[in-house]
Structure formats: structure tokens, C-alpha cells
Amino acid sequence: MKRHAGAVLSSIKIDKTAEKKISIQLYMALRDLLLTGALTPGDRMPATRTLAQEIGVSRTTVIDATDRLISEGLLEARVGAGTFVSEALNA
Q1: What count of other Cβ atoms lies within 10 Å of the Cβ of residue 34?
Q2: What pLDDT score was predicted for residue 5?
Q3: Short-list 83, 7, 14, 19, CA closest to 55
Q4: What is the reported pTM?
């Protein structure tokens, strides 16, 4: 993901005044990026601290959204390696 991390991160917009929770907005934005192919299987996701800082939200918010995507099988967490876009998206 490093090759296009800047473009991907800049495309995520969070409206802190919206009725939807920030974690839901982030989850939906990341899910859209995954399902539209902006993030391809095998891409490494940025660290939660990096993503939180770039978007301007708390790390807990990023972890909540990421955990939900992992539970849906769109992301894979690899111990000691990071979080990656799931190969299941190839199917």
C-alpha cells in the first residue's frame, strides 16, 4: 500500500458533525476502497497510529473499523507483520 498510501488516505473523508458515528464512517470508507479495488489483495494497510493521525481520528476509532473489516474477512491480521487486504477479494 505504500506506493499509493497518500492517495488512498486523502480520499477518506470523515464528517465529525454527521449523525453517523466516526468509526462507522471510517469503516464504510475503507470498505468502499476495498470493494472498489482501490486497495488490492495483499496490500499492506498503514499502521493504526499512522491512519489515525492522517485522518484526524483516535486510534481506537481506527482499530474498531479495522476489527470489523477483519471479522468480515476483508482484511487479514498477521501477527508481527501487520494488517493486509484479504486474498479472498480475488474470489
Answers
A1: 21
A2: 54
A3: 14
A4: 0.86
